[in-house]
Amino acid sequence: MNVTVKELTYRIQNKTLIEAIGIEVREGELVGLIGPNGSGKSTLLKNMYRVLEPDKGAVFLDQQDLFRMSYKETARQVAVVSQETSVSFDFTVKDIVFMGRNPHKKMFEPDTGHDHEIVEQALSRVGLLDEAHSSFSTLSGGEKQRALIARSLVQQARFLILDEPTNHLDIRYQLQVMDLVKELGITSLAALHDLNIAAFYCDRLVVLKAGRLVASGSPEQVLRPELLHDVFGVSAEITSHPLTGKISITFLPESVNQLIEGRVKR
Ligand SMILES: Nc1ncnc2c1ncn2[C@@H]1O[C@H](COP(=O)(O)OP(=O)(O)OP(=O)(O)O)[C@@H](O)[C@H]1O
Question: Which among 48, 72, 109, 246 has most CB atoms closer than 10 A?
């Protein structure tokens, strides 16, 4: 699925949180949405998964206008994995994953063997088959995210939105979740804070600053020291990693920066 965002603007109480954002996520791409705290990443994504209603602009899923679709149809096309993973009731992992079947069913329609098969396949794919009957709330953060990814798999959505999916996860689970997302190959847009992870996994990056799009392109094109300084207010050295060939960013704290400048002057 190709996703096109056109001139998306969202205001609240006369404050413009995102303004005229235009981005494209092409079939099978993983696009990273980066930007400092408060730059509008979650607001943009919430407009795209219809928790918020934009003031202006459009989103097209292939040729279909997202804002003209029913919510049920939207749920068949768009899956969301966000960082908020608490649930109010004591659901099992399997219950949570089963919820992904809802947009495909009528009210009170019983689950079929086909539904069970799809759910078990998804649990197996994310490595949680053994946890199927465990309580969701007892899972580790990484396992919860994997369960939510399994839910989006059974949803059979063609566009995956991830809002800081690796937040609060330790590095092993961060890599595991990103490996999984990459391996799925679903057209995906992910808000990410870790720029090295974004550089490693994403096909392209889009950068927000104060609600506006300020750059987009491959990680190599986007992650330049000048941009990091301008957008995040930090100094950084960018190298190409000898093993992975990917961009690697070393952030330089102000104290180190002063030391380097001092040496250069001497
Ligand atoms: N309901 C609201 N009313 C007023 N301002 C809001 C509201 N929701 C968000 N904001 C403001 O909009 C801006 C963008 O917030 P948003 O959560 O989209 O940023 P973000 O880039 O996802 O940030 P973070 O990286 O911290 O998660 C922030 O300044 C935030 O305070």
Answer: 48
Nearest residue by C-alpha to atom 9 in ligand 1: 43
Q: Could you give the CA distance from residue 231 to residue 207 in angstroms, rounded to a whole number?
A: 8
> What CATH fold (topology level) applies to the domain 3-217?
Rossmann fold (3.40.50)
**For residue range 186-201, what is the model confidence (pLDDT) as tens digits?**
999 999 999 999 999 9
- Give just the sign of the alpha carbon dihedral 61, 62, 68, 72: negative
In whole angstroms, give the CA distance from residue 44 to residue 31: 14
Pairing of strands 3-12, 235-240: unpaired
Mutate to test the pocket of ligand 1, among 43, 189, 195 (most ligand atoms within 8 A of CB): 43
CA–centroid distance, 184 to ligand 1, in Å, is 29
Q: Could you tell me the end-to-end alpha-carbon distance of the chain, in angstroms, rounded to an integer?
A: 56
**Predicted TM-score (pTM) of this structure:** 0.91
Average pLDDT, the chain: 91
Instruction: Pull the structure tokens for residue 184.
Output: 């799925």
Residue spans per domain, the chain: 3-217
**Short-list 208, 207, 211, CA closest to 16:** 211
CA of 38 to the centre of ligand 1 (A): 5
Cβ of residue 42 lying under 6 Å from some atom of ligand 1: yes
- Mutation choice for ligand 1 from 41, 162, 207, CB with most ligand atoms inside 8 A: 41
Q: At residue 71, does pLDDT exceed 80? A: yes
- Count CB-CB contacts under 10 A for residue 102: 15
Asked whether the CA dihedral 61, 63, 69, 73 is positive or negative, the reply is: negative
Tell me the C-alpha distance between 250 and 236, whole Å. Answer: 6
Query: CB–CB of 34/27 below 8 Å?
Result: no
